[in-house]
Design brief:
The structure holds two protein chains of two kinds. Chain A is an alpha/beta fold. Chain A has helices at residues 4-12, 25-29, 62-75, 112-117, 123-139, 155-160, 181-189, 226-237; strands spanning 17-21, 37-42, 52-54, 84-89, 98-103, 148-152, 162-164, 195-198, 204-211, 241-245, 252-256, 259-264. Chain A starts with a helix and ends in a 5-residue tail after the last strand. Chain B is 68% helix and 9% strand. Classes of the chains: A alpha/beta, B alpha+beta.
């Protein structure tokens, strides 16, 4: 008969660091004097923890959450390539209930941390757009599934690589993606064809844009449609990030530098 | 408080009460004690319901009060009670005393509320000063410069100074010199602020025009002064231009100084 603690020992033994995902204050305090590095990963740093990695979205998928935390810690220099870390997070309830042992591999990062932190657009703007798209994906437009394409950041270049399909409804307006009225408005505008262009600071520059990037060398999974192809291509041609809501399978996908970085199912949020 | 100063003449009271001054005084004391106690309790729960404990939390005054085993709310409500007790005692003495010393008591009775208000102003001033210091330092937390830590303290002592001025004014003490000092200080602060933000103000005025009329928009290729590039962002204070090598942050004031050359596409 194997002692359960021994099993846990094989998972937790000889780790170089511990990643705590959204711990409670009392739980975190137990780790303050630990002799390994402890990194807190949460959406808000209300524990005043240091080191700290900020979660932009409450990833429901533990795999995405852990990946984001590790890549964030790696990017901030808190972990090194080849480190073995224990990730403590919650799967079932609010409480931390799951431990996973992960080897940090700097070569095979997915760029999900990069997507939010090292972009031209402000992280807040990207987060608002992602939330908006997730909500749009959940509810759809009048119950019908909708597709949408948001190009965030580097708006000047994007505007020069696209042309209007019709009059721009956002001309001479100063609407930011974080504004509360935007949700309703964009839901209505999402039936328009073409892409939304959003500037680095979050201003909605235009809707109804037909993107004209060159699609050379864009590597996106086969089977995705023209909307995804346009998104991948525009991020390869400019420094923008594109967030796409697929009309056919309802998934939210983020593209950067011409490749697919993040895939989320809006139903889970 | 005027009503207190014009207490009913002792002649108006019924005869039997005047024969038993001890009864009259004990009645006054009883009413005063009950009233003071009730006022203290009611004000405490009103302050608590109004969320005062949460809003003063963390201020130095509250912390001092906590270390003395009390809190801002209980200090304030207990002061209200004591104020009523004090008035009660004075009334009792007033009722007991012969009429020839009347005017002294009259003056004391009129003066007590002023002392009370002055004290309250000082308490509120201290709490507000701590709160202002907290807010300012919270705002400046991102700026990691040792000199910046001076600013919250300046704000704090300014608020305390103003509170003391009001309190002293309430007590009728000549505050003219202190007022002049305050005026000089405020004037200096305004002059420094205007001189320091002159360029910001002119840029903001230009920026508001740019945002309203949009002579150029995001994606246009423009030349402002000797900087040429594609407009990436138009804000209230600055315009971001970008060409192949660099990104320029151009103050909007320059747009009006040099004008804009916009390329047709």
């Amino acid at each position: 008969m194997v002692d359960p603690n021994e099993l846990l020992e094989t998972v937790l033994g000889d780790v170089d660091g511990i990643l705590l995902f959204s711990p409670t204050t009392s739980f975190y305090e137990q780790f303050v004097d630990a002799d390994v590095d402890v990194v807190v990963v949460a959406s808000e740093n209300d524990l005043d923890a240091d080191p700290f990695v900020e979660l932009p979205v409450a990833f429901q998928d533990v795999y995405d959450r852990v990946r984001f935390g590790i890549e964030g810690a790696l990017e901030q220099g808190l972990l090194d390539d080849g480190d073995v870390v224990a990730c403590i997070s919650s799967v079932f309830d609010e409480d931390l209930d799951t431990v996973s042992r992960v080897r940090v591999d700097a070569d095979s990062t997915s760029g999900v941390y990069d997507l939010f932190e090292n972009t031209r657009a402000e992280p807040d703007v990207l987060r608002s757009v992602l939330e908006l798209v997730i909500e749009l994906g959940k509810k759809g437009q009048k119950g019908q599934p909708v597709g949408a394409l948001f190009v965030v950041g580097d708006a000047g270049k994007v505007m020069n690589k696209s042309r209007p399909l019709s009059y721009n409804p956002f001309e001479k307006s100063h609407v930011h993606v974080g504004d509360p009225i935007v949700k309703v408005m964009l839901k209505e505008f999402s039936r328009l064809d073409g892409a939304f262009v959003i500037s680095d600071a979050g201003k909605i520059v235009s809707a109804y844009r037909y993107l004209e990037p060159s699609a050379e060398g864009v590597d996106i999974p086969k089977g995705l449609g023209t909307r995804h192809m346009a998104a991948g291509a525009v991020t390869r041609d400019t420094n923008a990030t594109a967030i796409v809501l697929s009309e056919s399978d309802g998934m939210v996908r983020a593209f950067k530098g011409g490749s697919l970085v993040l895939e989320l199912d809006p139903e889970e949020y | 408080m005027v009503a207190l100063a014009q207490l009913p003449d002792t002649e108006q009271l019924p005869e039997w009460l005047l024969d038993w001054p001890i009864l009259l005084i004990s009645m006054i004391v009883l009413v005063g004690v009950v009233l003071g106690y009730l006022l203290g309790r009611v004000s405490k729960s009103v302050l608590e319901a109004a969320g005062v404990p949460q809003s003063v939390e963390g201020t130095a005054f509250e912390r001092t009060a906590q270390s003395l085993g009390t809190s801002t709310v209980s200090i304030v409500s207990r002061m209200l009670s004591w104020f009523v007790y004090g008035v009660t005692v004075l009334t009792a003495i007033y009722a007991f005393r012969p009429a020839d010393t009347d005017w002294i008591w009259q003056r004391i009775v009129v003066f007590i509320p002023n002392v009370f208000i002055a004290f309250m102003v000082v308490v509120v001033g201290f709490v507000a000063a701590d709160k202002a210091e907290l807010i300012v330092s919270e705002r400046l937390r991102g700026v990691k410069l040792p000199e910046v830590s001076l600013l919250p303290r300046v704000v704090k002592y300014t608020v305390i100074y103003v509170a003391f001025l009001i309190a002293l004014g309430q007590l009728g003490i000549a505050t003219m010199a202190l007022l002049v000092l305050l005026a000089i200080y405020v004037l200096a602060a305004v002059i420094v602020a205007v001189a320091a933000t002159k360029d910001l103000l002119s840029s903001a005025a230009a920026g508001i025009y740019l945002l309203l009329r949009e002579p150029y928009g995001i994606g246009d290729r423009v030349t402002i002064g000797d900087r040429e590039g594609v407009v990436q962002e138009v804000g209230v204070l600055v315009t971001h231009l970008e060409d192949d090598e660099a990104e320029y942050v151009v103050p909007n004031g320059q747009v009006f100084e040099h004008g804009v050359r916009r390329e047709r596409n």
